[in-house]
Design goal:
This protein is an alpha+beta fold. The chain has seven domains: about 5-60, no CATH class; about 70-290, Rossmann fold (3-Layer(aba) Sandwich); about 290-360, no CATH class; about 365-460, Arc Repressor Mutant, subunit A (Orthogonal Bundle), CATH 1.10.10; about 465-495 and about 510-640, no CATH class; about 655-960, YVTN repeat-like/Quinoprotein amine dehydrogenase (Methylamine Dehydrogenase, Chain H), CATH 2.130.10.10; about 1085-1120, no CATH class. The chain contains 31 helices and 76 strands. Strands 9-10-11-8-12 form a five-stranded parallel beta sheet, with helices on both faces. Strands 17-76-75-74 form a four-stranded antiparallel beta sheet, with no helix packed on it. A hairpin with a 6-residue loop joins strand 41 (about 915) and strand 42 (about 925). The longest helix has about 30 residues, at about 535-565.
């Protein structure tokens, strides 16, 4: 029977199916019933439901609100070290005080305990020498001391036992989790350090690929809290830690040890550990081989005790003495040998004991061989069951539970009705395996090495590779049988994974190992199987046939399962590994590689959303994957039927691999680690974020900076990270732990660049003004200083840190100096023209220098320039300019060479990353996908990936070698305007490239491309009957078309009425900064003045415009004072109103194009005009914060509605014409009585450029539909206009952050960053989205009766 708890989210869940036609139906209130076999009942809390199903037993719990401390500890615990200690002592025999007392009296231990300078004790010895039991004794001793001291001023002990055969105990993350768990359990106040992060991430904090960074940071903070105590941390069997994790763990131990934080570690005598640990100056070593006499005496005591407990010879003291003597001679001081021998003697009769002990070999390997022979002597049927169990346990990546072992070994089919037989067979496998709490362990790491080495031919039959194939095949078979859509019965496609809490047993318990490791077993098989000839190659082919079918039928179910078990990053790595395997094969199944490649792109691109919301794999991921994506094609039947998206999404994957979201503000710098495994980003939000460059997982947030972080760089060995900030601070970080090593604040100006020396011993920082400091990496001590001049605005280091290029602004000209930093020698000076330098960079080989410049006086198409200089021949008089690339790119903020110097990438202000051939200057390709200007670009050291950092706060990873998609979008430039016609049958969109398109909303096809004079579209409006369309342009004209035929009807030309008389004074913003033709601010970091502001960052002053850089803005003000910012038809169709840039309103006769009236009253730009429904009144909203209401017939000003202090964006009359709404930039909605001019109410909501009434009480904005009553209640509750996230939107809308499509204010569909709107419009059962890329999407939704929400 199965028990399921179902998330009750107030939603219609009638479509959810449990078992055979078992349907859950929603009853009244919170009552539920289950029709079909089984039952379901609500506990009346609305948060927990139990259901009875068929084949599995599982409980799920919806955990609302923040996680409590108990849950935090539960999620942290992967194993309890105290339980592990008890298990080890039970399996290896009791702990004898005399066996470890000698260690406590040793010089090394006493030195570790008593002296401040000795902070790490290393106990080393060969296998079986009793290291683990010695540590158990030391733990007992220290724990007793811990209990006897005052808790507040005393000491605290934590410990962990590594086990190579258990994936939960053989990596660095698990070690720290165990240590933290024990510390927090002993001292509950420490839980707050964990809970703060756990509340945001849930269990995934400890389990995904960024877990090491999380737990190492947590333990570092905990140890800082415990610095007033003596803290003893003990880790056993370091040699059993995974090779890739051992160095991280040793680095952490060395970095965290101090006079109050002390470590004891144990391991075998392994050279790699010896080499790393010997550098520790605070180390004491205790070798068991050098203390063989003590070890031998301890083994003798152990033998004495174990022999005395042999029941078969308990009454025969002479025989006991003889057995003890023989065992002492043969044991050679090895506890494990004694334990294995006693295990055999326990099962022997008294008359057999003497014979057995005399026959027993002396070495461990010989004992293991004897155990193999004993298995062979079993009946053939028993032996045939033992070999699969032993071979499966030996190659598994972690200890398997009994049922997992039986399933993967393939023995359960024969004994499914007798599960107890599995235990019996395990017990017959000699003493190789032991069962503890339902999990099967190999008795010792040396036993595992013997099984996969000396006993290879005995237990693996056809070889280890074949065994991996068997486990792989069984894994696919199990997953194919178990995995299905919505396996936990969540129903809600936006139910977050961190609110799902599974109770064992669950439907994924038996297949979770397979979900994580199936590709690992396939890879292990292929590494050796290819060498065995064509017969084995056919096995590989059959394996891949199975994978092909699995991907086509179960891929999305597999992703869902990984997400539910917080292991989506494991899936990312697995599919990447699979694609790599296929790339090396010549004969594969047709389209199989393309399928694996599609699966890889799919999981990379949608990882972030599937990781948080598992069921979005079937909605957002399918909807927004390319139309020709294989995964989309194979799972098309799983795509939601309640939504249509037109036009089609792009046909192929672009070069954009992933979009990484984590920063809350603009990103200024990005850097790859030398091994390409990590990525660091520095942001205006005062943080440096560390990312996994392979999976896109956020590893660590480094938060010591107190101002904008402008620069970041890895050391060449990848162990350290340096960052520089706006306040002149330089921080050095430990990359593995995320701990800050040191920070200094010597610079008086922003730190523009940091770089490490090639020997990674020094880090050099350079600040605005030309001050360059060099620091000792280890200590943070200042080594040297170098000063250029005070007017350095741009600076860059060569890759080796030995040279630096500085850019100085000298009046109207620039000068570039090239310096030898170490010697302070000026190598070369380059004098430039009248331009602004935005960035400079060296090539990886240090032989080329790039400058990116802007010249406002240059002709159109040549204002932005990229200059490439050859700096190899410094002895010559002038630097040789190799190439200059010109264009209008919206500024080139950053440039970077590929590692082979054959490609130059540039991050541009128009949102594109351009790739050029630096030799020819030819464009290789343009990478599109950024929604705003690109501040930084960098190649990975292998040249395969490019990272770009954007003003929108997102990182993007690109495959620079990916083929460009063939299909082009209709709109090729940022969408600037988008509105529905009143009948919702048409949609008009305008883009930055002056394109105006008319769409059919039912088909999503472009009906007409409306032709104008090549001017920019500033405003659009439909007539009330949807038959005509008007558009206002920046040349002062308003064009009128027939909306059905696209026939141009007439042109209203305001240029004949107004001349260009505006002066050329600088534009003043509200923050008192000025926009001038060529900004010459004293600092590079003030370049944000010239960035393209977002629509919400409109420039204020005498005149304003939201789309344009400062130079373009001034030019527009001088020549386009008549641009039309708003147009509106009168409802009766007789008049057309247009608002000019300088604040004048014009009323036109729609039939004759004659100017009827001119309305003057505003002192700022008019953003919106609206007629009353009877066409008798006209309202206008302006940047001057005033709403003016006019009498249309007489042109008389009726009302001046003021009180708001911010610019007004939109205005609308109520249907009865008695009331009026105006929306301001600060999010206030003002509700006026039109008759009296009295302010009726104010509401808290976000600003909007589109505002209209749906009926007397409901309004429509550019993203939502909501009622005034809801707004009123919300405003009363919040009491502030800053808090408006509790709105009760009606129907289909966009979330406030524009990341989700909502239904009745509940999230339904996630929007990938590429498809988030910069402009949007709302209609009944429709949403229109205009993207920065130029893409226009029309989302259509089914009627309520067809909806599951």
């Amino acid at each position: 029977m199965a028990h399921q708890e179902r998330a009750h989210d107030g939603m219609n869940i009638s479509d959810n199916v449990f078992g055979d036609n078992t349907q859950i139906r929603q009853g009244d209130s919170s009552e539920f019933r289950l029709d079909g076999p089984g039952s379901i009942q609500n506990n009346n809390t609305g948060s927990q439901i139990s259901a009875v199903g068929f084949n599995a037993s599982v409980n799920f719990h919806y955990n609302p609100g923040s996680t409590n401390k108990h849950q935090c500890l539960v999620d942290l615990r992967s194993t309890d070290p105290r339980d592990d200690k008890a298990r080890i002592e039970q399996s290896k025999g009791c702990l004898l005080p005399g066996s470890y007392q000698w260690v406590l009296e040793s010089v090394a231990y006493q030195q570790w305990r008593r002296t401040e300078n000795t902070q790490v004790l290393w106990i080393k010895g060969d296998p079986g020498k009793g290291k683990t039991m010695l540590l158990c004794g030391i733990i007992d001793e220290l724990t007793a001391l811990e209990r006897s001291t005052n808790q507040r001023a005393g000491l605290i002990v934590s410990y962990f036992f590594c086990e190579a055969s258990d994936a939960r105990s053989n990596d660095a993350t698990s070690v720290l989790r165990g240590l933290i768990y024990l510390l927090a359990d002993k001292q509950p106040s420490l839980i707050e350090r964990i809970q703060k992060k756990h509340d945001r991430a849930g269990k995934a904090l400890f389990e995904d690929t960024n877990a090491w960074f999380a737990v190492s940071g947590i333990l570092t903070e905990i140890l800082q809290d415990l610095r007033s105590k003596d803290t003893y941390l003990i880790v056993d069997a370091l040699d059993e830690c995974a090779p890739g994790d051992l160095s991280k763990l040793l680095n952490f131990i060395q970095a965290s040890s101090s006079s109050r934080i002390k470590w004891i570690i144990s391991s075998r005598n392994q050279p790699q550990i010896e080499r790393r640990i010997r550098s520790n100056q605070h180390l004491a070593t205790l070798s068991l081989e050098q203390n063989a006499e003590h070890v031998s005496r301890s083994v003798d005591e152990y033998i004495k005790l174990r022999v005395a407990n042999l029941s078969s010879i308990a009454d025969n003291e002479d025989l006991q003495a003889e057995v003890r003597d023989i065992m002492r001679r043969k044991a050679h001081g090895t506890f494990l040998w004694v334990s294995l021998v006693i295990g055999e003697l326990d099962a022997a009769s008294s008359w057999e004991v003497q014979h057995i002990v005399k026959e027993l070999p002396e070495s461990l390997k010989e004992v293991y061989r004897r155990m193999i022979r004993q298995i062979q002597e079993h009946k053939q049927r028993i032996a045939e069951q033992c070999w699969p169990l032993l071979s499966t346990a030996a190659v598994a990546y972690r200890p398997l539970r009994l049922e997992e072992l039986a399933l993967l070994a393939g023995v359960q089919d024969n004994i499914s009705d007798k599960p107890q037989f599995i235990t019996e067979v395990v017990n017959l496998c000699g003493s190789f395996l032991t069962i503890l709490n339902g999990t099967v362990y190999i008795i010792h790491q040396s036993a595992k090495e013997f099984l996969t080495g000396d006993a290879y031919r005995d237990i693996f039959g056809y070889g280890i590779s074949t065994k991996h194939c068997v486990i792989f095949s069984k894994s696919l078979q199990l997953m194919s049988c178990v995995l299905r859509r919505d396996i936990y019965g969540l129903a809600n496609p936006t139910f977050p994974v961190d609110k799902v809490q599974e109770h064992s047993p669950g439907p994924l318990d038996g297949v979770y190992y397979s979900c994580v490791h199936w590709v690992d077993h396939l890879e292990e098989a292929e590494q050796t199987i290819k060498q065995d000839g064509d017969v084995k190659l056919s096995i590989i082919h059959r394996c891949h046939v199975k994978v092909d079918k699995f991907l086509r039928t179960k891929f999305l179910y597999w992703l869902e399962a990984l997400s539910l078990r917080r292991s989506i990053s494991s899936g990312v790595l697995a599919i990447a590994k699979l694609e790599q395997l296929l790339s090396t094969q010549s004969n594969t199944i047709p389209h199989y590689f393309e399928l694996a490649h599609d699966a890889n792109r799919f999981i990379l691109y949608f990882r972030s959303i599937i990781e948080r919301y598992p069921l979005q794999a079937y909605s957002s991921a399918l909807i927004f994957s390319p139309s020709q994506c294989s995964i989309r094609h194979h799972f098309e039947h799983k795509q939601p039927s309640w939504i249509t998206v037109t036009p089609l999404i792009e046909s192929q994957w672009s070069a954009l691999l992933q979009i990484l979201e984590g920063h809350t503000s603009s990103i200024n710098a990005v850097s790859f680690s030398p091994d390409c495994q990590r990525l660091a980003s520095a942001s205006d939000d005062f943080t440096v974020l560390l990312w996994d460059a392979n999976t896109g997982a956020l590893l660590k947030s480094l938060t010591a900076h107190t101002s904008k972080v402008l620069s970041v760089a890895f050391s060449l060995n990848g162990e350290r990270l340096a960052s520089g900030s706006h306040d002149g601070r330089v921080c050095l970080w430990d990359v593995d732990t995320g701990a800050m090593v040191w920070n200094v604040k010597k610079h008086d100006n922003p730190v523009l660049s940091v770089v490490f020396s090639s020997d990674h011993r020094h880090v050099t920082s350079a600040s605005l003004g030309g001050l360059i400091w060099s620091w000792d990496v280890r200590t943070g001590v200042l080594l040297s200083a170098f000063v250029e001049t005070t007017n350095v605005t741009v600076i860059a280091f060569a890759p080796n840190g030995k040279r630096v290029a500085t850019v100085l602004e000298e009046g109207e000209r620039i000068r570039v100096n090239l310096w030898d930093v170490r010697n302070g020698v000026l190598l070369r000076t380059l004098k430039g023209g009248n331009c602004r330098v935005w960035s400079t960079t060296f090539s990886p080989d240090g032989e080329q220098l790039v400058l990116t410049t802007y010249d406002a006086a240059a002709p159109s198409g040549k204002r932005d320039s990229v200059h490439i200089y050859d700096i190899r021949r410094l002895s010559e008089r002038d630097l040789e300019r190799q190439k200059t690339i010109n264009g209008d790119f919206g500024r080139v903020w950053s440039a970077a060479f590929s590692p082979d110097c054959k490609t130059l990438a540039a991050g541009c202000g128009d949102g594109k990353v351009r790739l050029w051939d630096p030799t020819t200057g030819m464009v290789i390709r343009s990478l599109k996908g950024n929604t705003n200007q690109v501040n930084s670009v960098v190649f990975s050291s292998n040249g395969r990936k490019l990272a770009s950092a954007s003003y929108d706060g997102m990182l993007r990873l690109w495959d620079v070698h990916a083929a460009a998609p063939e299909q082009a979008l209709v709109q090729r430039s940022r969408v600037t305007l988008i509105i529905f016609s009143p009948d919702h049958r048409r949609l008009v969109s305008a883009s930055h490239n002056k394109t105006l398109l008319l769409w059919d909303t039912s088909t999503g096809k472009v009906q007409h491309e409306l032709q104008g004079q090549g001017s920019r579209v500033c405003s659009v409006a439909f007539s009330s009957d949807s038959k005509m369309l008007a558009a206002g342009f920046n040349d002062g004209t308003v064009w009128l078309w027939d909306a059905q035929t696209a026939e141009q009807l007439m042109i209203f030309d305001s240029r004949t009425k107004y001349s260009n008389t505006i002066n050329s004074n600088p534009v003043v913003r509200r923050d008192n900064t000025q926009l001038v033709p060529r900004p010459r601010g004293p600092t590079r970091w003030l370049r944000s003045i010239s960035r393209t502001p977002r629509p919400s960052d409109a420039i204020n002053g005498v005149f304003q415009a939201w789309d344009g850089l400062s130079e373009l803005l001034l030019k527009a003000m001088k020549s386009n004072t008549c641009l039309v910012d708003s147009v509106a038809f009168s409802p009766d169709g007789r008049l057309l109103a247009s608002a000019l840039y300088e604040g004048t309103l014009l009323l036109w006769d729609r039939s004759t194009a004659a100017l009827r009236n001119t309305l003057k009253g505003h002192t700022g730009k008019v953003n919106s005009v609206a007629f009353s429904s009877d066409s008798q009144k006209l309202a206008s909203a302006s940047d001057d914060s005033v709403v003016l209401v006019w009498d249309v017939a007489s042109s008389r000003l009726l009302l001046t509605l003021q009180g708001n202090t911010d610019r007004l964006l939109s205005v609308a009359f109520s249907p009865d014409n008695k009331r009026l709404l105006s929306s301001s930039h600060n999010g206030m909605l003002w509700h006026w009585d039109v008759t009296t001019g009295v302010l009726l109410n104010t509401y808290a909501m976000e600003s909007t450029f589109q505002l209209s009434f749906k009926n007397e009480s409901t309004i429509i904005t550019d993203r939502t539909v909501t009622s005034l009553d809801d707004l009123s209640q919300r405003s009363e509750v919040s009491g502030s206009f800053e808090h408006h996230n509790e709105s009760k939107a009606r129907g289909w809308t966009l979330s406030e952050d524009r990341c989700w499509v909502n239904r009745n204010d509940r999230r339904v569909l996630w929007l990938p960053p590429e498809y988030r709107p910069v402009r949007s419009a709302v209609a009944t059962q429709k949403l229109a989205i205009g993207c920065s890329s130029g893409n226009v999407l029309i989302l259509g939704f089914a009627s309520d009766k067809h909806m599951w929400v």
